[in-house]
Design goal:
Elements: E1 2-4, H1 13-21, E2 38-43, E3 46-51, H2 59-63, E4 69-71, E5 77-79, H3 89-93, E6 100-101, E7 110-111, H4 117-121, H5 127-131, E8 137-138, H6 142-155, E9 176-178, H7 197-206, H8 208-240
Parallel strand pairs: 1-9
Antiparallel strand pairs: 1-8, 2-3, 4-5, 6-7
Length: 251
Amino acid sequence: MLIDLTLCMGCNACQAACKEENHLSPNEEKNLSLTAYTALNKYSDVYVRRLCQHCDVPTCVSVCPVGALVKQGDGPVAYDADKCIGCRYCLQACPYHVPKYEWSSTKPRIQKCRFCAPRLAKGQLPACAEACPVGATLFGDRDELLLEAARRLGAEPTKYVPRIYGKDDVGGTSMFYLSSVPFEQLGFDSRLGRVPLPMLTMSALSKVPNVLSVGGVVLGGIWWITNRRTEVAAFEAAEKKGETPRPEEKP
């Protein structure tokens, strides 16, 4: 989805449609919660809509030990509550701090935007995109939306900051943003880098075998040197007493 913050007028139709589609509390909310899969907040004069970014290489999926979170080919990061064991690794791993946990429930689940996966399977638009009355949220093919975002930046360079948030962040996401205000001033984290976070973990883990091998050699060398010093000290002590030990016979 392409979310153009310069077009959003704060009507909150996106959140209302999301809540109706997912049978959530109809109360208006400004922050993501168990009952708000999308939230609309205001920074100065700019309305900012937040929801799960549905990363191309999701960190939450990479850390889930039971496969409760899966990246689908058509975009959504889907969640299977029946598989979830409540480890909450996804909460710690998500760079956008999106998943919420039902702490007070006896059968707790993770709650977050589902990208209206059932609607997409039927060829329908996500509820929030369909409800937007001014076209601030567009749904479509990723490459086509990126072209549209680039077209808008080129057509009105003084209107937008020269960045498509979500295009390359943490390897790319399914949600893109255009803004007339620097994203850092709107609560977006611009320090995440372009490399998918799971790739950083794999890069670190790939060095572990080498570290262990080199470490083993180093520790073995330290043991030999220490042991050799002990043997030399014992020999010198015995020599002073006139009790030079006989060398050990080798088999």
